[in-house]
Amino acid sequence: MEENATTRILQSKYFNSAFNTAIFDGPLRVYFSQIHEPDAFKVYFSLHNHFFKDESLMDLKNYIPSDSTLFIMIYPCKDSFEKSFQSADSFALEKIDKDIILGVQSPVTDQIKDTILEKLQNHVFTKQCLE
């Protein structure tokens, strides 16, 4: 039996015990610590406003395989981020099985948010999907 996306992420190196809150919106999952809720909503609403102004996030399925999930993981600090990603940046984009994982180190500045949107534009929403 195939495991679902939530099971895959919960059992992966990307999940952090500090994550105690999540936003589930169609194929999008945003995990974060409640104290970082402003960062989570900044990323979530920026993503929605930038890519899906006139459509639902369910339309994300037009850009990623139908059985895939886009996970945005907002890590509370550099140490927790580095346990999951080998990146000198404050964010990283990787793939696990069919799912896309975007890891972000808090705090999420406007510059980081803009870079995240650009990276998603170039690697996810162009149907390249981390080939």
Rg, alpha carbons: 14 Å
Number of domains: 1
SS summary, helix count? 4
Number of strands: 5
In short:
The chain has helices spanning 5-10, 37-51, 78-84, 110-123, and strands spanning 21-25, 28-32, 70-75, 91-96, 99-105. It is of the alpha/beta class and 131 residues long.
Structure description:
The structure is a single chain. The mean pLDDT is about 85. This protein has helices at about 5-10, 35-50, 80-85, 110-125; strands at about 20-25, 30, 70-75, 90-95, 100-105. The protein has one domain (about 5-125): Glutaredoxin (3-Layer(aba) Sandwich). By secondary structure, it is of the alpha/beta class. It is globular and about 35 Å long. The protein has four helices and five strands. About 30% of the residues lie in helices and about 20% in strands. The longest helix is centred in the middle third of the chain and has 15 residues, at about 35-50.
What's the helix and strand layout?
Layout: H1 5-10, E1 21-25, E2 28-32, H2 37-51, E3 70-75, H3 78-84, E4 91-96, E5 99-105, H4 110-123
Parallel strand pairs: 2-3, 3-5
Antiparallel strand pairs: 1-2, 4-5
Key phrases:
131 residues, 32% helix, 4 helices, Glutaredoxin, single chain, 5 strands
